[in-house]
């Protein structure tokens, strides 16, 4: 049975192009299109779509307002269609917090050599959205209660070695999973490197949003930064992020090499570099996402002595990348997302204490 898609966009040209792209896929079809959320509301009842594509900025009702009401009254998978602007990226980050599964940028109206690749990207996002766990799509709180103590503040341990690093990979649903994880990290946690599948132009807004919410410093990697405790670096949307060394220090490194497993940035590239440069000092974390990027890299980390965690199926938006990492033998523990931060910190403290006693 084909995936039924409802396209919501105020541009007739965009609606036409998205319809053409989606209908060209053998496993999906556009059952209706709408120029605004008010018309879409009735079409949802009439067509009962499996997935919505939703423009973030529209007349009559803002895309975010519509999304918030939809996720409260009739939760369903939504893929946002975003403009490649600073405002567009900020709105998109908010849409993901409200429950959208993923997003794509606005397609170029002129047919080009890249249209097939763009069509494949949209199709992959829709397939992932169809597989998403609806129970995870409720609107999420984004700001801690003022004055409330952080859950893991008591887990701080000055004896944790500065050589330790946390290496994270994620894809579909990963922006919220990463946020959930990082918000529990104390200011003196080990340095963190993150690859999240996300296009250029959005990773900086993502990093800035996290930096405003977390106790640790979060930034988009520029390349050459020293990786210190209490700092996290996110791969830019158009570069691979690698762990490198400069003398006795860990530093970030960016690569403009070709995509790996169709991804740039690639989780495998980051994990492979962590295996080579950090070995047993690395702690791997693979979170929700579609596909298998990161599975081979996580196994390489484990073989180099790292200890690895995977998000379990129950708490994943899409249990693809963690499943593949487990199947390839690279995972030591599978955990619910809510338990991941405290367990990682507990492992770090126990491991550091053992090292000091030896």
Walk me through this protein's architecture:
Helices cover 36% and strands 21% of the residues. Strands 8-9-7-6-12-13-14 form a 7-stranded parallel β-sheet, sandwiched between helices. The protein has helices spanning 12-23, 37-47, 63-73, 86-98, 115-131, 174-182, 203-213, 267-277, 295-303, 321-327, 340-357, and strands at residues 3-8, 28-34, 51-55, 78-82, 102-105, 165-170, 191-196, 217-220, 231-234, 240-246, 249-255, 282-286, 307-311, 333-335. The protein folds into 2 domains: 3-132, Rossmann fold; 154-357, Rossmann fold (3-Layer(aba) Sandwich). It starts with a strand and ends with a helix. The chain is built from 11 helices and 14 strands. With 358 residues, the chain is an alpha/beta fold. It is an enzyme of class 3 (hydrolase).
Brief summary of the model shown:
InterPro entries: CheB-like, CheB_C, CheY-like_superfamily, Sig_transdc_resp-reg_Me-estase, Sig_transdc_resp-reg_receiver. By secondary structure, the protein is an alpha/beta fold.
Q: What is the CA–CA distance across the termini? A: 60 Å
Task: Identify the overall geometry.
Answer: elongated
Q: Report the CATH superfamily of the largest domain.
A: Methylesterase CheB, C-terminal domain
| CATH fold naming of the largest domain | Rossmann fold
The level-1 CATH class of the largest domain: Alpha Beta
- Sheet with most strands: strand arrangement: 8-9-7-6-12-13-14
- Radius of gyration equals 20 Å
EC number: 3.1.1.61, 3.5.1.44
Family: Belongs to the CheB family.
Keywords: Chemotaxis, Cytoplasm, Hydrolase, Phosphoprotein
Catalytic activity: L-glutaminyl-[protein] + H2O = L-glutamyl-[protein] + NH4(+); [protein]-L-glutamate 5-O-methyl ester + H2O = L-glutamyl-[protein] + methanol + H(+)
């Amino acid at each position: 049975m084909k995936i039924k898609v409802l396209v919501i966009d105020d541009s007739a040209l965009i609606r036409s192009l998205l319809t053409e792209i989606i209908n060209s896929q053998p496993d999906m079809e556009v059952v209706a299109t709408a120029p605004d959320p008010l018309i879409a509301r009735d079409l949802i009842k009439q067509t009962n779509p499996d997935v919505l594509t939703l423009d973030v900025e529209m007349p009559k009702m803002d895309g975010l307002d519509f999304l918030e009401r939809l996720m409260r009254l009739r939760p369903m998978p939504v893929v946002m269609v975003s403009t490649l602007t600073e405002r567009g990226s900020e709105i998109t980050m908010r849409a993901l917090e409200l429950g959208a599964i993923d997003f794509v940028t606005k397609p170029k109206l002129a047919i080009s050599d890249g249209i097939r690749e763009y069509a494949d990207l949209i199709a992959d996002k829709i397939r992932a959205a169809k597989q998403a766990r609806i129970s995870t799509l409720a609107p999420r709180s984004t700001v801690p209660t003022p004055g409330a103590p952080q859950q893991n503040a008591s887990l701080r341990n000055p004896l944790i070695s500065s050589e330790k690093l946390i290496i994270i990979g994620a894809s579909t649903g990963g922006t919220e999973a990463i946020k959930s994880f990082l918000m529990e990290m104390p200011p003196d946690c080990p340095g963190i490197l993150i690859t999240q599948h996300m296009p250029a132009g959005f990773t900086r807004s993502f990093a800035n949003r996290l930096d405003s919410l977390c106790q640790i410093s979060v930034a988009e990697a520029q390349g050459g930064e020293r990786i210190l405790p209490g700092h996290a670096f996110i791969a830019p949307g158009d570069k691979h992020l690698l762990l490198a060394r400069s003398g006795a220090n860990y530093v970030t490194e960016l690569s403009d090499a070709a995509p790996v497993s169709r991804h740039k940035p690639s989780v495998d590239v980051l994990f492979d570099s962590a295996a080579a440069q950090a070995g047993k000092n690395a702690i791997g974390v693979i979170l929700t996402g579609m596909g298998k990027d990161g599975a081979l890299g996580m196994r390489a980390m484990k073989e180099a002595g790292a200890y690895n965690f995977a998000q379990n199926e129950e708490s994943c938006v899409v249990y693809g990348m963690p499943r593949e990492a487990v199947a390839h033998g690279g995972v030591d523990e599978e955990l619910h997302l809510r338990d991941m931060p405290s367990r990682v910190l507990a492992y770090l403290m126990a491991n550091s204490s053992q090292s000091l006693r030896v």
